Amino acid sequence: MYPQLRMRRLRKQNIRPLVREAELSVNDLIFPIFVDETIDVRREIESMPSQFRFPLEDLRAEANEVLGLKIPAIILFGIPKKKDEMATSAYDSDGIVQRAIRSIRDEVGDNLVIIADLCLCEYMDHGHCGVVKDSEIQNDPTLDLLGRTAVTYAEAGADIVAPSGMMDGMVQAIRSALDDKSYSSIPIMSYAAKYASSFYSPFRDAAESRYSFGDRGTYQMDFGNSNEALREVELDLKEGADIVMVKPAMAYLDILCRVKEKFGVPTAAYNVSGEYSMVKAAALKGWIDERRVVEEMLLGIKRAGADMILTYFAKDVASELLNKT
């Protein structure tokens, strides 16, 4: 007890690193990349400063930059030329993400883990994550499309597929589809606890995936619920998920902590577009120190239980970490 016990003794600048409980590593990072079939030159995303939509021809250079920063993995999101009510571009073997996977694989071999985000919203003409009938999102008819898409990603050379549509039974459908085509070694990173969040708005601009009616509240989770997230994760694990994800990250650190403590499986967290854009906007105004805030934010996600963090800050953080070594 005070004065014998003084907690400040271990907070001296030269001692602090010795007793730090959590560390952020470049190996924790996954960098999201948008590949756009409709453009010829890269375009900055207005609501996400310093982030871009890339044409297919620019992906090799971008992959090499990521690799040079020692970031171990990327996750791909596609913007197709064609959208329709059955998301046919999503499972086209010559679709934009499939070609992107092959291009990156040809360039960097196995030196970069390629994760393919597996959702249909970018490919649907209505912007929802599933088949629509009478203004209702149809769960079960969507599962077959997700399975077909997963197989084309695996055929193209993806290391991991990451279903994000929050359809009931999606992991089981995708696992079965992959196994039936002899892709039983492809892991599934499930967006198991994905909330119906307002933090996604900049992403919807980036991926051109705004919905034309209603909202996504009938399939994404209510942000007032915590126990439900544990049920979702448990179901996905039983269906065959290898990695589970909590999305968004910052307002859901309690969920992340509960998931990691209860299940102890590889757990990802998505530091989403709105979180990125708020930090960028405040930094551009001179209201915060971006570098310090990002470090604190990502370390908080790590401390809460994330084994891997999907973040648009990945390249900046990796550069900073490499400069420290």
Compact description:
The protein has helices spanning 16-19, 59-68, 96-108, 139-156, 170-180, 201-206, 227-239, 253-263, 273-284, 290-304, 314-324, and strands at residues 29-36, 43-44, 52-54, 73-79, 113-118, 131-133, 136-138, 160-163, 189-194, 243-247, 267-271, 308-311. The chain has 325 residues and is α/β, with parallel strands linked by helices.
Molecular structure report:
The chain has 325 residues and is an alpha/beta fold. It has one domain (18-324): TIM Barrel. Helix content is 38%, strand content 17%. It has 11 helices and 12 strands. It has helices at 16-19, 59-68, 96-108, 139-156, 170-180, 201-206, 227-239, 253-263, 273-284, 290-304, 314-324, and strands at 29-36, 43-44, 52-54, 73-79, 113-118, 131-133, 136-138, 160-163, 189-194, 243-247, 267-271, 308-311. The strands form 2 sheets. Strands 1, 2, 3, 4, 5, 8, 9, 10, 11 and 12 form a 10-stranded mixed beta sheet that branches. A two-stranded antiparallel ribbon has the order 6-7. A hairpin with a 2-residue loop joins strand 6 (131-133) and strand 7 (136-138). Helix 4 packs across helix 5. The mean pLDDT is 93.
